[in-house]
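pinging the channel bc i need a second pair of eyes. not urgent but kinda urgent?? the chain im working w is below, pasted from the shared doc
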Amino acid sequence: MGESPPPPPSPAKVYYDGCPGCAVERRKESHEGLPYKELFFVGITTFASALPITSLFPFLYFMIRDLHVAQREEDIGFYAGFLGASYMIGRGFASVFWGMVADRIGRKPVIAFSVFSVIIFNTLFGFSVKYWMAITTRFLLGALNGFLAPVKAYSIEVCRPEHQALGISIVSTAWGMGVIIGPAIGGYLAQPVKQYPHLFHEKSIFERFPYLLPCLCISFLAALVFISCAWLPETLHKHKGHERAVETAEGSTTQENAELPKKSLFKNWPLMSSIITYSVFSLHDTAYSEIFSLWTVSNRKYGGLSFSSKDVGQVLTVAGASLLVYQLLVYRWVDKILGPIHSTRVASALSIPIIATYPFMTHISGLRLGVALYSAAMIKSILAITRVTGTSLLQNNAVPQEQRGAANGIATTTMSLFKAVAPACAGVIFSWAQKRQHAAFFPGDQMVFLLLNLTEVIGLVLTFKPFLAVPQQYN
């Protein structure tokens, strides 16, 4: 028998001069290593954009009190919930729009504009002297910060196929760090005249605007990131008639399935089921962040710990440091041994007993309280980021590469809506629970943490069949 003829050579790629997407494709083909500069930019930009989301939680209780909107101390949680939710409501309404804009004009303009909106509206939030002003600036900060979906697409597009998982993990890690370090900044720097009287004079601007300093620090970091956007390469192809892919010499596309009909994302049950699970966990984590901050600073007579915002900042700083160590040194082994599905289930199950211990910490003090609270906060942060990373991997492996941008946009919108509900509900429930300190059934904050655990149980159940459809590569 004669030998079979050799396969025909693959057609040569044609790159278009002046097209930024082609320039990135050319660089990826000639350099097999990691795009360190682009991934570093992805990390710091994601971190800067995530900081203001939760930075207000440690001083939210005191800010509502100082705005004189609550008639009674027990009502502070009610108003705090709606202020905490305003950012996510704005982001939920606008995420799909910003994803469409990023697909049309490019990733770079949307990312740069989002960072610029952080500079403006986060600073204005620090100047808020009325409740309506605080809610408005937070809502606009969320609505104009269409960052998350474009940066996820960007983190994939700057990487060769073998490095794309790393690109997505950098977004998740930097986002998780920002959400944890943000409250630490808020806790350390809020009310500086009261916390650091030897550094800040009582007649300074920070006496009139006691919550301005943490906002200024975050906005300053965002300003540095905004300047660095000038060196950010665009990844969207911009040659007329060939936006989707680099053409070959014969005029066919390098993405062979680009002409094939794509499955509707809303009919992709592995994607949608992972988004639903991810959103439930996001609701839980956001509610936990607000309740933790409100609970620790509330008076012991209402079941809290009577902490200052600085004390809360210290706890969250330690939790953030443990998270960084875990992500850099431990998580890859957890994922290698358990995989994203089992690691998500284990992390969710372990979170339940951790949360159940919180309401009983009000009965201890001193060193025992410090050991218990710091340990619980660190373990809870580690378990939360394990769940988030696992479900994010399931989402991005449930769709082909050319649909990941749209899939991330849907996930961001759904997550934002769930996260918008979380602070409002958490604030209302917290305020209600503080008024039932002597109830026979789960009095006071015990009820709050019970409802948090019920949400966790729902998320855990959603990680099993038939609720979760597993992507084919995990079967």
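so Confidence is low (pLDDT under 50) at residues 242-261. and The first strand starts at residue 13 and ends at 14. — does that match what u expected or am i reading it wrong
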